[in-house]
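ok so i was messing around last nite and threw this chain in just to see what happens. nothing serious, just curious
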Amino acid sequence: MIQSMTGYGKSVANYNGKKIHVEIKSLNSKALDLTTRVAPLYREREIEVRNYIATELERGKIDFVLWIEKDESTGATPINTALVADYYKQIKELSIALNLDMSGIQSASDWMKVLLRMPEALSRTEVEELTDEEWAVVFDAVKEAVANLVDFRKQEGLALAKKFQEKIDNISALLASIEPFEKERTEKIRQRIISNLSQLVGVDYDTNRLEQEMIYYIEKLDISEEKQRLTNHIKYFAETMENGHGQGKKLGFIAQEMGREINTTGSKSNQAEMQNIVVKMKDELEQIKEQVLNVL
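result:
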């Protein structure tokens, strides 16, 4: 069954006090247009993530985000104690050497306000390294988010398939409704030609040649081939929907061929009732063309 290109998936994993969030969404696009935003710790494995997404999702405008939410207990920025102590010592020595008045800075809170504003007094000196164990947890979360998006696409695909089936059934019914008018039309054309010729007083004409010309004229207006080809295209459209995902472009091409046959039928229809039916078929097909752009 077909899939939609529109989808959304997310997952959450936990590892050593870190909550790892993965979100991925997809919109329709003619090709794969992948944008990734990955937490710095995992950027060394970003290519692996991109390759996996490209393999699983194939096509669409895809936005992928991977970020880390740390526990509050591990989120505080550490104070560089040794550096702050050195700043304090240097300030005291400088005040003595320059004979500065330090009476305005006496309490501990006053000193802390000054010292914590010094460069690099607050800093993260530890460097995190990505372990294979942590990456296995993260990549499982990536897989889960992608799988959720695929499930979303399948649900949307079922809705699209139902809509498409409704539209092609409508076109088939409209095509069948043309037949009575088609039979009436050929007889009306014949009668109109004969009636017009009977009004030509004193003019002789070859009845055999007239029959040949009428047959030729009526054959030019015949839509049997167009009807047969349109019926085949409708059948092929339905079969393609059942062939699985990745059929979006193919369905678009089939819809174009259906449009050609409907347009040719309209150009050959010189009867108001038939032309009205053709307009209705065009309206149904246009709705198919609009939605087929969303099919993977």
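not much to say yet. The chain has a mean pLDDT of 85.
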